[in-house]
Design brief:
The chain is an alpha+beta fold. The protein has five helices and nine strands; from the N terminus they run βααββββαββββαα. The termini are far apart.
Length: about 210
């Protein structure tokens, strides 16, 4: 696990994901560079809301799973704190139904094709909530390094080599561990939460009440 950046991809105005074919176009560019397809990937998220009759520390808990961490569950509080547990944490949430219940239409996921190119891992995918398409996402990981400052220039140069000319380089991803400033899996998960919340807002879905 190295430094990872997760980027929502804007669609041309009036185009859906299927009409724009942006995922296919980006995948072909990566393949022309020599990237090798290594399978499928997904990140899914289900949001739980605190029962109104209880005064809980957090009104929302986002439960996230990723194919990169198949034996791990990530629970993200609305404060931004990310708890890392084994996959058995899911059964704990069902036992906490007195305090937290799944929000209606809260499930959202990103999935697509995974590629490797040297020290880079590339993922292209569509974001959807149930049958509804929400947007596109690109994930880039530079595996040999966990220090954002040391590799961010290389990563943005690599991104610019296959993204559209209009692509705006994002800001460096933040590290949650301030004592070391080194990237960790939780930092990737927090980026997905931000992307999911962005697409939920654009669809007019409230995040908290």
């Amino acid at each position: 696990m190295g430094v990872t950046c997760v980027i929502p991809v804007e669609l041309p105005e009036g185009k859906s994901g299927q009409q724009a074919h942006l995922v296919e176009k980006l995948q072909k560019r990566a393949e022309l560079m020599g990237a090798q397809k290594t399978g499928n990937w997904f990140v899914n998220c289900e949001t739980y809301q605190a029962v109104a009759t209880f005064n809980t520390a957090s009104k929302l808990i986002h439960l996230i799973h990723s194919t990169e961490f198949p034996y791990t569950s990530f629970a993200v509080l609305e404060t931004g704190t990310c708890l890392v547990a084994d996959s058995g944490f899911d059964s704990l949430m069902t036992k906490l139904k007195t305090f937290y219940t799944p929000r209606k239409t809260s499930k959202i996921e990103a999935k697509g094709q995974r590629y490797e190119y040297g020290d880079f891992v590339l993922k292209f995918g569509q974001v959807s909530a149930g049958p509804s398409f929400k947007g596109l996402v690109v994930e880039l990981e530079y595996q040999p390094c966990m220090d954002v400052q040391q590799c961010w220039g290389l990563m943005t140069e690599f991104l610019s080599s296959f993204m559209d000319p209009s692509f705006t380089v994002p800001l460096p991803p933040k590290c949650s561990n301030k004592s070391t400033d080194l990237f960790c899996p939780s930092d990737t998960i927090l980026q997905y939460i931000e992307v999911f919340n962005t697409y939920r807002k654009s669809a007019g879905t409230p995040l908290s009440q």
